[in-house]
């Protein structure tokens, strides 16, 4: 049984692992919509607060909602473009009305989605988890170089910081055991940030300017408005998130040695739908299971849900105390990138481990894994190949996790289910195909 101090420390490690991904969405949307600094600050506070509530809802769960696995929820990046487009064409109230209705759709559609899980055998699960990890690697490398679009991108000092942070994490895992090893990522972030401070790369301006207290309130940007096109757009966004989250649930199930049933997925997606509705009510964002935290669970081997309860509580507090939240933003991108390389690599390794349980000597399984990973990685690496397509199609196909997952499911239906159906319809015995 972990002490409260250890739980809080491990929880903070998970918060820092997902923090950059959480705050970048309100920063991008607020900047694109030319919101005032006070409004952007509210967006960040509301996002962190709702991230915490959403995480607690999923981890603690009830009889009907919540996956009850060590998962952290954060705002999905898929929603950034659509929210900006909707708000630019009308207003933020319309965007939040669409988010609320799309969350209700997820709650109602969850049982139907659960019935589709028979199309997710081991070979599909392993392929999807591998795709999730591979699609995150460019994020880690961009951060390691200083952050995409930063003026000092690729500077030697950035690469040195990233490499040093990664080496520290590896050394701690090699030289220590127990709790110290479990917080290797946190220690790597702290030591890396200290080194960056000595190099003059850490600034506390955001901390100084942030207010001490911020109370999140419903409908901060006005009473929600409902328009059918905006609602359909956000429903599509959340269908994409449902596919991503299902892959994360499978990955967590493997890491925590728990069989994830269709009912577990249904409860997880219901919880996600409720979290999305909360995002609309508190003027935050749609939420999905964060992949990076799967890598952290795998790396630390701390699988208890109590740690995620602590992480959810910390996020709620950060949402109420902007100055404290701003303190966590001083970690430089290269330091985060170094830590991400280890975490995201663990997600890839988890996917490979799942695929190792599949008989890849069966040509059908080999094709499913090969083609789905290639399509998923290709879509993530070269998303501009779909720029000439309609907006809805582009939104789906530029997401490598979705394209890879769809490819794996379709190929499994055609190559495995189709052949098994054909064999059952003929009296001639021609052998069996193992469905992994």
Largest sheet: 2 strands, antiparallel
Number of strands: 2
Sheet-strand content, in percent, reads under 5%
Shape: globular
What does this structure look like?
By secondary structure, the protein is an all-alpha fold. Helices cover 70% and strands 1% of the residues. The protein is built from 18 helices and 2 strands. A two-stranded antiparallel ribbon has the order 1-2. The longest helix is centred in the first third of the chain and has 29 residues, at 4-32. Residues 428-436 have low confidence and may be disordered.
In short:
With 436 residues, the protein is mainly α.
What are the SSEs and their pairings?
Elements: H1 4-32, H2 37-60, E1 73-75, H3 80-89, H4 92-114, H5 122-144, H6 156-175, H7 178-182, H8 184-198, H9 205-209, H10 228-255, H11 262-281, E2 287-289, H12 292-300, H13 305-320, H14 322-327, H15 333-355, H16 363-381, H17 391-397, H18 400-424
Antiparallel strand pairs: 1-2
Using brief descriptors, characterize the structure shown.
436 residues, two-stranded antiparallel sheet, globular, mainly alpha, disordered C terminus, 70% helix
